[in-house]
Design goal:
Blueprint (H helix, E strand, L loop, with lengths): L2 H34 L4 E8 H6 L4 H7 L3 E8 L1 H13 L6 E5 L3 H6 L7 H5 L11 H5 L2 E2 L2 E2 L2 E6 L2 E5 H6 L9 H15 L6 E2 L6 H7 L7 E2 L4 E2 L4 H15 L14 H6 L5 E4 L2 H9 L8 E3 L11 E2 L1 E7 L6 H11 L2 H11 L12 H4 L5 H7 L2 E2 L7 H16 L5 H15 L1 H8 L16
Parallel strand pairs: 1-2, 1-3, 8-11, 13-15
Antiparallel strand pairs: 3-14, 4-5, 6-14, 7-11, 7-12, 9-10
């Protein structure tokens, strides 16, 4: 057959393929349109990281209870979530509801992006502020106005080797700094020069921050205008932190310098590890069976008894520009129900912020969670200024210099105040001139 004879058939085949492709595209478009045009209110919900993936398993029950609402969940990568939210704010494309980091609430409230919630809370008896851990709830309160409802809460406390404490004659976990020092000194004598008592990772601000937040004085003073790190209380925390490195109770190391913190904990390279609740599952999974009875969690020691710690985690916010606030609020109320929080804990291991939710059998029966339940009664919010995350990075950097002996306690306190005051300079000017300050995105490491 000649090429000329084959050409019409090729054209016919091409037309059939184009027709099939057009039909397939039309089917997709009609299906998409029917999803958007089925008469239901579509609530756009953004959530970060692993939680954004797991929460989707809870949505079908909400939609069953609320047949007129469909929830569209978008999972945000943790590393870019803050930038994406700021970009969406600038482009007037924020979702209806979002779960944001607790330290971001003040920033977005200052941007006037958040809807105040006091009226809705009064109209929703199932959301009782008094059932929440006070420090966790307070993270979402700015100038006596609630802007956020806690979704899950995390804080840091010591995981410890109870077998090694018993071996050196420490019968009960320490409750005060002095008792903790005694325990660390005893462990160090037992394990020798090549092992340690505690791991305070130098690449994290949390170990020093959680010691410092126990002080009676606030971390910032004069309405968040200046650093307050030269206060007597924070300087005592600096002294405790430095002593741990001077006496070689703690190694001069970051998490990244220790190949596997769980293996090193298991072999006794350190006996106390201050970290968050997600590590309960990790220790259960990663430690061998013969070591599962050797570890436990304990509340964070304080100067004169069990101490405070920082209230971390994430909270729900409604964005002011949303035209679907009523439907979005129903979603917040559903995800805040104790039973739903219990389910979410089962999916993620995240700790619920409501006391009632802790009646879940899985939490009641978990001995490792009990210390966190105790600790949550003493959590405190970080300072509520948009610049706080930048200041926290300076705490990490100055803390590393302190641990390495390059700064004294007095010098570290003075340096932290100097760096914080520089970061807060614009805030001071605007507050002093009675101009509402514009929030700035956090920039890790600025001022190093």
């Amino acid at each position: 057959m000649s090429a000329g004879a084959r050409t019409p058939r090729r054209f016919a085949a091409a037309r059939r393929l184009l027709a099939l492709a057009a039909l397939a595209l039309l089917t997709v478009l009609l299906g998409s349109c029917s999803g958007r045009g089925d008469g239901r209110t579509v609530v756009k919900f953004w959530a970060m990281g692993f939680e954004g993936e797991m929460v989707q398993r809870l949505i079908p029950e909400f939609e069953r209870r609320n047949p007129g609402i469909r929830v569209q969940v978008q999972q945000l990568p943790i590393t870019s979530a803050h930038e994406k939210l700021l970009t969406a704010f600038a482009g007037d494309s924020l979702p209806d509801v979002c779960a944001i980091g607790n330290t971001w609430v003040s920033e977005f409230a200052l941007l006037d992006a958040l809807e105040p919630l006091d009226g809705r809370l009064r109209a929703t008896p199932s959301l009782r502020a008094q059932d929440y851990f006070a420090g966790a709830w307070d993270t979402g309160v700015i100038d006596a106005q609630a802007y956020a409802v806690p979704w899950y809460v995390e804080t840091r406390l010591p995981f410890y080797r109870r077998d090694l404490l018993q071996k050196v004659g420490i019968a009960a976990p320490p409750k005060t700094w002095d008792e903790w020092k005694t325990a660390m000194a005893a462990i160090k004598r037992e394990v020798g020069p090549d092992r340690y008592a505690v791991l305070f990772p130098l690449n994290e601000p949390e170990p020093l921050l959680n010691l410092g937040i126990q002080a009676d004085e606030p971390l910032l003073r004069d309405g968040g205008r200046y650093g307050n790190f030269r206060s007597p209380g924070f300087k005592r925390a600096l002294a405790f932190y430095r002593e741990a490195f001077e006496r070689k109770w703690a190694p001069l190391a970051s998490n990244t310098q220790i190949a596997n913190v769980w293996n090193e904990f298991g072999r006794g390279y350190f006996s106390f590890y201050v970290n968050g609740p997600w590590n309960i599952a990790e220790f259960k999974k990663r430690l061998p069976a013969d070591l599962q009875d050797t570890w436990m969690t304990m509340p964070l020691p304080g100067e004169h008894g069990p101490g405070a710690s920082v209230a971390g985690g994430a909270s729900f916010v409604l964005f002011r520009g949303s035209p679907r606030q009523d439907a979005a609020w129903k979603l917040i109320a559903y995800l805040s129900e104790p039973q739903t929080q219990m389910q979410f804990h089962g999916l993620t291991g995240n700790l619920p912020p409501r006391r009632e939710s802790w009646n879940a059998p899985a939490l009641v029966a978990d001995p490792y969670a009990r210390a966190f339940r105790d600790q949550l009664e003493r959590v405190r919010p970080a300072p509520k200024v948009p610049e706080w995350e930048r200041i926290a990075m300076e705490i990490k950097l100055v803390g590393e210099q302190l641990a390495n002996g390059r700064l004294s306690v007095d010098q570290a306190a003075e340096e932290l105040d100097r760096r914080a005051d520089r970061i807060l300079e614009k805030r001071r000017w605007m507050l002093d001139h009675a101009v509402k300050p514009a929030a700035q995105p956090a920039t890790a490491g600025e001022g190093a």
